[in-house]
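User: I'm putting together a teaching handout on how sequence relates to shape, and I'd like one worked example. Could you take Nucleoside ABC transporter membrane protein from Roseateles toxinivorans, show the sequence you're using, and then write out its predicted structure as tokens right after it?

Assistant: Happy to. First the sequence, then the structure tokens directly below it.
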Amino acid sequence: MEGIALLLAATLNAGTVLAIAGLGLLINERAGIVNLGAEGLMLVAAIAGFATAVHTGNDWLAFAAGAGAGALMAMVFGLLVIWLNTNQYAAGLALSLFGTGFSAFVGIRYAQEKLTERARFEIPFLSDIPFLGSALFKQHPMVYFAIALAAGLAWFLYRSRAGLVLRAVGESPESAHALGYPVRRIRLAAVMVGGALCGVAGAYVSVIYTSLWVEGMIAGKGWIALALTTFATWRPARVLLGAYLFGGVTMLQFHLQGQGVEVASQLLSMLPYVSTIVVLVLISRNAGFIRVNMPASLGKPFFPGS
């Protein structure tokens, strides 16, 4: 039972990265913008957060640095695709390539750096509960932040006026513009908030999840988070569920190796990516279901006054 509790705890930890990034990308796509640059954006945020943690020793400043780096890169991306009407997919891929190279260049001097031992967190009394205490109540605060973020985003999108406007911009920007809403500014704000959340996820990887910097350390998590939005049919609660599903698959490989299962490590390392492909293939078989749930203007440019 203790082994299962540790596996559940590791699943929550690994899923937090995907959940925060996936929810950020969900905000983008609800506004009608596809950002394929999440991988590079998270890498830049990871090195920004790690460097800040090295120099200040403050994890929260590191998260702020990651969020700032993510928001800044997302702003540049937003200006290109929203105001200059460049192709969203090409610009996103360029952002991903730039972030990969830039983070590798900046991170050279930090490759040998190590952070001090991370503080341990636990919720008083609840952490002493057998099994559940180890599995659920000894997590970093960002784990609980991801759950609260999913709940808050669901309320925002479906219960608030601002959320309704955001969804209207993603469904029909022409109609929202006709009603007097500043569609471009709303889209830019959504892109920057989404970028900031991806930045927090990237900083979490380098500062908490691994506590070190390695070139390319995001290792496809940005792409999995992007796939999560489709898997979740653009709903926050499903993003959270999908994140923990993929986080569990990721941790399962280490659990099986620890149990001495005689399977090639390369095959176990493939599990998260294979599961992502399988899920997307299964979902894609019902194209009508995706069309009903997908924002109608997703990936489409908007020209005011045209």
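A couple of points you could highlight for students: The longest helix spans residues 2-30. The mean pLDDT is 89.
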